[in-house]
């Protein structure tokens, strides 16, 4: 909760100071960055390309003692493809406390921070040593200028501002026999604007190294409780450890996913390794309070303090926990490290309140809050999110220790009961997402954030009569998994199995959700298909004042009526995606034909989210709200489609061969496009354009887009 945090910033020196890099920011425009290898525990290799600068960061942890052991970090820097003299590069290595712990600097020549000794609750006594830079070969000494900052920390979320406000260009880089150059370096920190009088949260010690690339820097962390240390983990010893861990990682990756055995070339195997590694490298520990609005309270209230260890969708844009994303993340991580995955799932279930509700977005602590617009901070206690953690738990179930399942089961039961109690639909065995946008006149189609599919078209006029197909299918899955857990524990499973059977009844499913006029499964609600956005002039606030800009407002040209919602897309596929349709279902051929129809869902890059012939295909939802789940290709749903097709291809039934054919085509299309986009852009993306295949949305997105690894491995 109150960690001692080491870290790295860098600055390419230039006129006006250049751009200080620290936290992952999409706006920084780095051409490529990400973990190429990361085992989630002891080792990682990351490459960063910032203009002509190439940075490689590598770490190794050596377990030992009572506080986790030692670790060492190597940073290699060089300029690529630039003519003329390389700009000076400054590397800022820092360590900061945040609420507890002590740090003591050890200086050489008053300006070079050679080491920091310290102590903290979780790390005990430790020594952090900053070794002198060398040439890239790791041996020859490298000329560098050194600067040092010792400042009160206003909080980890403001460290970038502290360093930026401390920079001064009064310093001179003067290598022997070479031209002298001015550069920016940390000087004196005089406090941040608006923070006068605020008590400090901790202490920041920073070591700035300025050099002409190329060069290599090493940092060692040595735990005071390690006895019989075999020697410092630096230089040749660090190189040997990195080589050993690299070989072990590659062997474990092949044994786990068998991509070499499947014939994938080395370049595609490296792509898959990077996808897994970037997800592991983005994992974080968060601590704080959610801001919650309950229907029982007039004003929002902070929830109790909570801790969360989780993967995140995107290091740059979504560096926090999202409930439905995490189930997809854990499908991959459960395959790599089941114990790690069990830990994450337990953390998420521990976030549950007394009613059985888990907030869908976890904005815990100041660092997380600093990345979220104020309007998204509030979590509504009646709003659900798909229970995808159960997909991952189902995968872990055969080998999960019984004591773990015993601890989980009361929480799973409370969560399941909460869905049944709060998200029930208007008829028996129907379900309705709560929390749709409450002002329908402002949106082409009011969003349903609870579903995870945000702006996917639902009934145009929200009402209590809605029946949501996807939620009903999620509840069938939840009933199945709860039944499996209960049976594993010897607990009564009858109610769960009965509910699973009722929700899987194909006849009842058709009765409630088959839209004959669409030839597809669909939501039901108060719906008008004649809805559009039009520009409306706004009357000036007072005579003589300039008129405000016109606004896009919703226009309903035909009154809504209770009916099936005319939107063909991902929601229509849910009975197939979660394999509720029997292999001999008479509707299965129609659903498969819809998937394969290029005017509807099929593209050369994967299944698009909304059919091209649907009325809201690629339509904006408001003036400032571009289409999101209204056409682009999303990897998580394509993964579920492949998982289902693989299942139908292996089951006896008349569609077996057709399912196998679609499976082969869809798998090839999805993998080929993600690999092509990664090769061209350097990133996995949030979504992919359904017309060009180009990655779009935020990046890097090594969240559920990393499921491409399981698709390549055919591991469902």
From TrEMBL:
UniProt keyword annotation of Endoplasmic reticulum present: yes
A cellular-component GO term for this protein: endoplasmic reticulum membrane
Record membrane topology: Single-pass type II membrane protein
SUPFAM superfamilies, A to Z: Six-hairpin glycosidases (SSF48208)
InterPro entries, per database record: 6-hairpin_glycosidase_sf (IPR008928), 6hp_glycosidase-like_sf (IPR012341), Glyco_hydro_63_C (IPR031335), Glyco_hydro_63N (IPR031631), Glyco_hydro_63N_sf (IPR038518), Glycoside_hydrolase_63 (IPR004888)
Location(s), subcellular: Endoplasmic reticulum membrane
Pathway(s) served: Glycan metabolism; N-glycan degradation
Main localisation: endoplasmic reticulum
Keywords carried by this UniProt record: Endoplasmic reticulum, Glycoprotein, Glycosidase, Hydrolase, Membrane, Signal-anchor, Transmembrane, Transmembrane helix
The protein's name in its UniProt record: Mannosyl-oligosaccharide glucosidase
């Amino acid at each position: 909760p109150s960690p001692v945090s080491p870290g790295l910033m860098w600055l390419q020196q230039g006129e006006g100071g250049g751009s200080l890099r620290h936290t992952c920011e999409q706006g920084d425009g780095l051409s490529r960055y990400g973990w190429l290898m990361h085992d989630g525990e002891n080792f990682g290799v990351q490459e960063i390309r910032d203009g002509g600068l190439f940075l490689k960061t590598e770490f190794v942890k050596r377990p030992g003692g009572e506080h986790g052991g030692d670790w060492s970090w190597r940073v290699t820097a060089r300029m690529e493809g630039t003519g003329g003299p390389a700009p000076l590069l400054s590397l800022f290595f820092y360590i900061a406390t945040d609420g507890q712990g002590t740090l003591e600097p050890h200086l050489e020549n008053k300006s070079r921070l050679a080491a920091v000794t310290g102590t903290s609750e979780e790390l005990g006594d430790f020594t952090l040593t900053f070794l002198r830079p060398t040439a890239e070969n790791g041996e020859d000494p490298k000329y560098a200028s050194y600067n040092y900052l010792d400042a009160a920390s206003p909080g980890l979320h403001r460290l970038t501002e502290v360093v930026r406000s401390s920079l001064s260009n009064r310093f001179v880089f003067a290598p022997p026999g070479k031209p002298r150059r001015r550069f920016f370096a940390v000087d004196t920190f005089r406090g941040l604007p608006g923070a006068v009088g605020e008590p400090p949260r901790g202490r920041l010690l920073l070591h700035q190294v300025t050099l002409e690339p190329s060069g290599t820097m090493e940092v060692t962390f040595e735990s005071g409780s390690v006895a019989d240390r075999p020697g410092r983990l630096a230089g040749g010893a660090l190189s040997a450890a990195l080589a050993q861990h690299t070989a072990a990682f590659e062997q474990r990756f092949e044994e786990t996913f068998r991509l070499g055995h499947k014939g994938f070339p080395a370049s595609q195997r490296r792509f898959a390794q990077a996808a897994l590694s970037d997800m592991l490298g983005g994992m974080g520990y968060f601590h704080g309070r959610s801001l919650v609005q309950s229907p029982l309270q007039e004003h929002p209230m902070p929830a109790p303090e909570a801790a969360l260890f989780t993967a995140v969708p995107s290091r740059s844009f979504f560096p926090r926990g999202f409930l439905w994303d995490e189930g997809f993340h854990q499908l991959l991580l459960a395959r790599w490290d089941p114990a790690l995955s069990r830990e994450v799932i337990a953390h998420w279930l521990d976030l549950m309140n007394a009613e059985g509700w888990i907030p869908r977005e976890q904005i815990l602590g100041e660092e997380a809050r600093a990345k979220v617009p104020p309007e998204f901070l509030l979590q509504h206690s009646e709003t659900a999110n798909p229970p995808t953690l159960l997909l991952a738990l189902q995968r872990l179930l055969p080998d999960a220790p019984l004591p773990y399942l015993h601890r989980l089961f009361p929480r799973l039961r409370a969560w399941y009961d909460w869905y049944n109690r709060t998200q029930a639909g208007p008829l028996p065995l129907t379900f309705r997402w709560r929390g749709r946008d409450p002002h329908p006149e402002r949106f082409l189609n009011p969003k349903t954030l609870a579903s995870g599919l945000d702006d996917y078209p639902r009934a145009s006029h929200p009402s209590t009569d809605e029946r949501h197909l996807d939620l009903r299918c999620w509840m069938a899955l939840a009933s199945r998994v709860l039944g499996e857990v209960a049976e594993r524990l010897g607990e009564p499973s009858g109610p769960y199995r009965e509910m699973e059977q009722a929700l899987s009844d194909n006849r009842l499913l058709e009765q409630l959700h088959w839209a004959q006029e669409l030839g597809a499964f669909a939501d039901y609600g108060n719906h008008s298909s004649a809805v559009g956005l039009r520009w409306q002039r706004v009357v000036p606030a007072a005579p003589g004042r300039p008129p405000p800009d016109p606004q896009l407002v919703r226009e309903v040209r035909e009154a809504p009526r209770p009916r099936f919602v005319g939107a063909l897309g991902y929601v229509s596929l849910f009975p197939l995606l979660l394999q509720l349709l029997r292999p001999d279902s008479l509707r299965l051929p129609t659903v498969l034909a819809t998937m394969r129809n290029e005017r509807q869902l099929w593209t050369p890059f994967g299944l698009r989210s909304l059919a091209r012939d649907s009325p809201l295909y690629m339509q904006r939802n408001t003036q400032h709200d571009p289409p999101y789940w209204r056409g682009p290709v999303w990897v998580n749903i394509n993964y579920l489609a492949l998982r289902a097709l693989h299942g139908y291809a292996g089951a006896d039934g008349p569609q077996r061969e057709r399912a196998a054919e679609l499976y082969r085509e869809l798998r090839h299309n999805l993998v080929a496009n993600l690999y092509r986009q990664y090769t061209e852009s350097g990133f996995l993306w949030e979504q992919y354009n359904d017309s060009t295949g180009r990655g779009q949305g935020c990046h890097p997105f090594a969240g559920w887009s990393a499921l491409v690894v399981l698709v390549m491995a055919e591991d469902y």
